Structure to design on (420 residues):
């Protein structure tokens, strides 16, 4: 059990107070919020003990002269339920049709899609602290941490219907010819497979980069499918490369989707959704108002980008910045590298060119700017009421790492239709 040695500020029922966590585990707040979200179903039993401990430590700090027993803390926790309000942008459905868990949750792209179809999220995990802040701001729930740790896995409840995971792509050390479950040890896919093996959900929905198909000459994907089909006993149709631009958002983002169904359900056929008839353009997600001058490129930076592109073109490479026209489709939004520079836009509405950040040179007069975090959110299909509580740098990273919600929803709708 990992112990923390810091003092944090917690808020319960609108009151802020210091929490002594010298004996609390790192999962305290996650268990507390998960318990509050699941108090009306049997899932709460998986979080109650840790949630009570969290409340007890808070009360011990606030009332140091009192003897706070487990029973007293338990009563306090139950009292909180009566006054608990889900005043969050995206509350759970009142009458859930199915239950799911959200692994490698990021900022909740899977959750948005699944909740919109009537799903109830009963467990979520994400290790990035900034992403956790964004997740909590929108769903009122703190994700558990590192899913590779047994102390995190022990909180995963039984009886959920769908496992969702956008796990990272990693190479396997394939010891035998078969490429099975044991060969994936030490990778994040192994942790996903282990959870599927232990919990036996009706279905799973996995998302990964397009490159997974050819990763390690195709051996990585072959091993994944062998584990899911042969070792775990699920019906897994051939994975599909899905493009976000075909599902209502103007972003050329290709990702591989892998779905599977427990064989005892008798499901032997699955068809991925067809592309939408209407194709969106960037102007459909462009900011309606004039954006801050901070998003506009300086003349010096623009000069650097042009020189960089010219060097690569001279070598026959296609690298470099790109300006997306209003009637065009954006390149994939990704964190790092040329993620923002390959999605520049024209916007000539700016009138005040006085820079508000430290830049070299002047603000360019060509109207060339970066997309805003909100525009990236829209490119991924996040609704405008989705709260962005972090700084721009973190926001770009979070949306770049997220899933395209409409493509996830269209596929999930097909999954739910055959298991509910």
């Amino acid at each position: 059990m990992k112990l923390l040695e810091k003092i944090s500020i917690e808020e319960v029922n609108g009151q802020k107070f210091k929490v002594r966590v010298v004996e609390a585990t790192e999962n305290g707040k996650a268990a507390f919020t998960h318990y509050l979200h699941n108090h009306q179903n049997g899932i709460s039993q998986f979080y109650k003990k840790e949630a009570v401990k969290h409340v007890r430590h808070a009360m011990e700090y606030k009332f140091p002269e009192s003897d706070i027993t487990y029973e007293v803390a338990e009563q306090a926790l139950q009292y909180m339920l009566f006054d608990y309000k889900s005043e969050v942008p995206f509350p759970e459905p009142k009458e859930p049709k199915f239950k799911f868990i959200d692994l490698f949750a990021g900022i909740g792209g899977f959750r948005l899609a699944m909740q919109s179809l009537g799903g109830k999220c009963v467990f979520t995990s994400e290790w990035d602290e900034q992403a956790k802040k964004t997740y909590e701001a929108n769903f009122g729930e703190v994700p558990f941490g590192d899913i590779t740790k047994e102390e995190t896995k022990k909180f995963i409840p039984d009886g959920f219907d769908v496992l969702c995971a956008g796990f990272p792509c990693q190479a396997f050390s394939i010891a035998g010819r078969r490429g099975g479950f044991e060969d994936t040890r030490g990778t994040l896919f192994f942790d996903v497979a282990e959870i599927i093996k232990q919990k036996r959900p009706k279905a799973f929905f996995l998302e990964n980069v397009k490159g997974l198909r050819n990763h390690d000459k195709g051996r990585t994907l072959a091993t994944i499918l062998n584990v899911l089909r042969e070792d775990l006993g699920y019906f897994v149709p051939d994975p599909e490369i899905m493009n976000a631009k075909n599902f209502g958002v103007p972003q050329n983002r290709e990702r591989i989707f892998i779905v599977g169904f427990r064989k005892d359900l008798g499901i032997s056929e699955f068809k991925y959704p067809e592309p939408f008839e209407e194709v969106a353009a960037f102007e459909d997600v462009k900011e309606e108002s004039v954006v801050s001058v901070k998003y506009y490129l300086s003349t010096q930076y623009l000069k650097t980008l042009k020189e960089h592109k010219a060097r690569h073109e001279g070598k026959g490479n296609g690298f470099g910045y790109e300006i997306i026209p209003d009637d065009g489709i954006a390149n994939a939004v990704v964190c790092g590298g040329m993620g923002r520079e390959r999605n520049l836009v024209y916007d000539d509405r700016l009138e005040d060119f006085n820079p508000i950040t430290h830049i070299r040179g002047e603000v360019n007069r060509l109207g060339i700017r970066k997309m805003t975090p909100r525009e990236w959110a829209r490119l991924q299909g996040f609704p405008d009421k989705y709260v962005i509580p972090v700084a721009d740098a973190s926001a770009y990273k979070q949306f770049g790492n997220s899933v395209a919600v409409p493509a996830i929803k269209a596929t999930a709708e097909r999954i739910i239709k055959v298991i509910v």
Q: What stands out?
A: Residues 202 and 409 are 18 Å apart (CA to CA). The first strand starts at residue 7 and ends at 12.
